[in-house]
């Protein structure tokens, strides 16, 4: 064995010639930060590191050579099935929501709804979306999943409107309204809808709106009034209709504190399909996405509502497209145009083109 001194920090050891030993180079180095001129005053002890570099010597003539170990065959990787992955994720999210004792807003509920909406906002090819929506497991949970979404959205609005109505001054209520998580999304959504309406009502801009399914927090109505005010539009009135008496009383109180009088904003507790609900004098009737929890109910509601509207009036549908049909029922009619709102929605809806009923609505 021969030892060659390279320097004071490095030793090279080499075996006798003709042997199959492995030469090693061992370097004893000091931490650069500890030995550099700018090292910290606290570094009183140099840090040593040992690095060993090993190489295999070439065997001498006549030495036996170890056979090369056989390489195990690599199993083929199964292709990822995007449909199966999405179906599995949706089912997991549904089960988690179903197991909750309440859907009142909280970090866990918000996270689960956020995850669900993220999954449903994906835009796969139509054939892929159809496979997902027609999967027997998805078909089975869809009605209950939509109901969970409706319940979650109602509780979210109720939670916020209760916070808003605790304040007495218009300034404080306005500030709380503007801080609502999805306020800006409603602003964008209503702006798109009003642009669509304006494109087909050039000669006579609408002045009377009805919102069917206005809910505890009438954001659509408030955004319509604000948007048209900014456009210097002639004064308009919005009639809010909901079958829930608590939603009507709470939203009425909210709008009173916001300074809206009955000329611009009024409320009516009634079922959207009630024959006693007179819709003849409205220029535009909005139908909320949650009116009609399945396609048959929605179609019946649309036809009934259209039959009570005057000829030439517009029925604006909020519905869902593609995977968002897991959140809301899709339109039962042929869709000519779909508009998506931008931003992150807890429960997202698509805007569909207006439908003019054959009965004159």
Share of β-strand residues: 15-25%
- The secondary structure category is alpha/beta
Order of strands in the sheet with the most strands?
A: 7-6-5-8-9-11-10
List low-confidence stretches. Answer: 1-56, 342-361
Spatial shape: globular
Radius of gyration: 34 Å
- What share of residues is helical? 25-40%
Q: What number is the mean pLDDT?
A: 78
Per DSSP, the total helix count is 10
Total beta strands: 11
| Biggest beta-sheet profile | 7 strands, mixed
Q: What is the string of SSEs from the N terminus onward?
A: EEEHEHHHHHHEHEHEEHEEE
| Gap from first CA to last CA | 102 Å
What does this protein look like?
The strands form two sheets. A seven-stranded mixed beta sheet has the order 7-6-5-8-9-11-10, with helices on one face. Strands 1-2-3-4 form a four-stranded antiparallel beta sheet. A hairpin with a 2-residue loop joins strand 1 and strand 2 (10-14). Helix 2 packs across helix 5, helix 5 (136-165) runs antiparallel to helix 6 (170-178) and helix 5 (136-165) packs across helix 9. The chain has helices spanning 32-35, 82-98, 107-120, 126-133, 136-165, 170-178, 183-198, 219-230, 245-257, 295-307, and strands at residues 2-7, 10-14, 24-30, 48-54, 208-212, 237-242, 265-269, 284-287, 314-319, 338-340, 350-352. It is globular and about 85 Å long. It has 361 residues and is α/β, with parallel strands linked by helices. Helices cover 38% and strands 16% of the residues. 29% of the residues are buried.
